[in-house]
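Ticket reopened. Same input as before:
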Amino acid sequence: MKLGFAAALAAAAVVSFPAQAQTEIQFWHSMGGALGEAVNDLAGKFNASQKEYKVVPVFKGTYPVSMTAAIAAFRAGNAPHVLQVFEVGTATMMAAKGAVVPVTKLMADAKEPFEPKAYLPTVAGYYTDTKGNMLSFPFNSSTVMFYVNKDAFKKAGLDPNKAPKTWQEVLSAAEKLKASGQQCTYTTSWPSWMHIENFSAWHDVPIGTKQNGMAGTDTQFTINSPLHVRHVGMLADMSKKGLFTYAGRTNQGDAKFSSGECAMFSGSAGAQAGIKKAAKFDWSINFIPYHDDVKGAPQNSIIGGASLWVMGGKKPAEYRGVAKFFAFLSRPEVQMDWHVATGYVPITLASYELTRKSGFYDKNPGADMPVKQLTNKAPTINSKGLRFGNFVQGRELIEEELEAAFAGRKDAKTAMDDAVKRGNDVLRKFEAANK
Amino acid sequence: MEKRVVFRSAWLPYALLAPQIAVTIVFFFWPAAQAVWFSFQVQDAFGLRTEFVGLRNFAELFADERYLQSFGTTAIFSIAVAFFGLAISLALATMADRVIRGALAYKTLLIWPYAVAPAVAGVLWAFLFAPSIGIVTYVLKRAGIDWNWIINGEQAMLLIIIASVWKQISYNFLFFLAGLQSIPRSLIEAAAIDGAGPLRRFWTIVFPMLSPTTFFLLVVNIVYAFFDTFGVIDATTQGGPAQATQILVYKVYHDGVKAADLGGSSAQSVILMFIVIVLTVAQFRFVERRVQY
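Engineering reply: fixed in the latest deploy. New output:
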């Protein structure tokens, strides 16, 4: 009888052995299509590199959807180990103390090497708290770029190799393009990210007080400054004259450019892959335009994209696995593969160097423009990034007010004043809920 | 002889009802009670900190002009969807009722859209009317109409009304057709002999006889416009541009799920619950009185 028990125990041990051998790490992400394959590729390479841990990537839908799903899962007590959160969700995640494990702490506990200084300052700054602790692991970063259809420029009698550098030049190019019969001269994807957030950083003006919210939740928006109002007013005016075609709040502008409908376009650096595939014309990727009478412009642009957050309440062994996975992701050659495969910017200086040496930029001219724009100058407090609570909501209401201005229902000043007023309400609510 | 089934047991009826009651409690009463409870609280997204704030969420809502605007949007949308949904399907049903050849084919085709999920209906219409690539947009541009619902609020509203009405016509059509077929032919024939024209016959005989069906459909359509059109809106305008198509139920979803403001969102759903109760009671008490059964 005793022997039988021991045998059963031994058998059970054998049966459960494979399950115990590998610690599974759930990784929820929002990388669909080709990007999703790149994520699977990364996880596959990590899993093949060692035997103890197995990273399981799960595609959970768009950024807001997967974040919502993870929050619900956390409330129900079964959050994933690693969650990819887009940049506007950063403040919400940072405020959720107890729900997340800071990356610096994770790496220190697991005694894995981790050097926040290895990252581009604009990237690291976005995810670092005021005490200098990096809270999440930078993963996919992009920035906003300015694209030009060279064939359309040629047709309009413009120099195709001289993309507009200032908004004044954009305006005169738009008029010439219009005169040449171009239906849509300029469009944009991600209106708030481009025309408010990056616009502010690029001109070295604040988006909000308290270092764009990085120094505290008692921040207020400052996007109704004369410069902001002037810029939105200019766009509204262009919209009225048919020189600017509004394309919606996400990346709908991408297709308008790659189909040839619009001749100039501002959108994510990540749009390159799609344009390369679809465009039947010659195009170029450039720095975003600026107003040349603003002192200090152009400064540097800020990032978009996402970082990886480690959720709380898991077992120590699992955290060791997550730390190992992050250490793997930090390797320059892994970073380079990711950058080349996806078009996201190289986020460590080492991987940027490595990519340059590999000759990738010589073969793909323009592919290093995003990283050059991000590091154009050393970031100031206005161009490090931003951190506003519930900014998912904040960005949306900014876009609503922009839409009202572009449609001519409000003048630029009223629209931006309303955006500030409504945005501050959201910030106060966040402040109250996260005391 | 007593034909009714009589339960002698004290517990058997309750036991038989139990599954239904359990489902109702778990899926209706419990979440509703939870919404009421949450509506008095302020929570962070992760539920780590909760604070009881009494009626503050409600006070904030009614101080928010955009919330009040959403009421107006919902009213316009619901009335338009219910009116056009009923009018068009009634016209179609009246015509289909007269068709002699190929009636089955007509009816089948008219009932088809009902099998389409609201989200799919939304995507279909969004594609047809897409500002850059839509076929309808192309035709409209040819006709000199600048169609871009991404920026034009009125056009966005028109789009979701069209999509929602189209989706609901089949359902209404089915009920109207059944209602029409239950009207005795002899009545209409008698009127015809007395010299009443088709229009006169419709308004004085058919329409009043149809009133129970119309009333039922009115209730169903208002509820449909209030709640079931969520899929259509989420697949097309997502409440935009500038909240032009943000009806109450979409705002509940948006504030609760996307904006992670659970307290405010719960307060809105409590108000919505209240509105639906009032609407239903009002419809049954006042509108029903004028209906001839």
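The mean pLDDT of chain B is 86. The CA atoms of residues 112 and 170 of chain B lie 7 Å apart. Please confirm and we'll close it.
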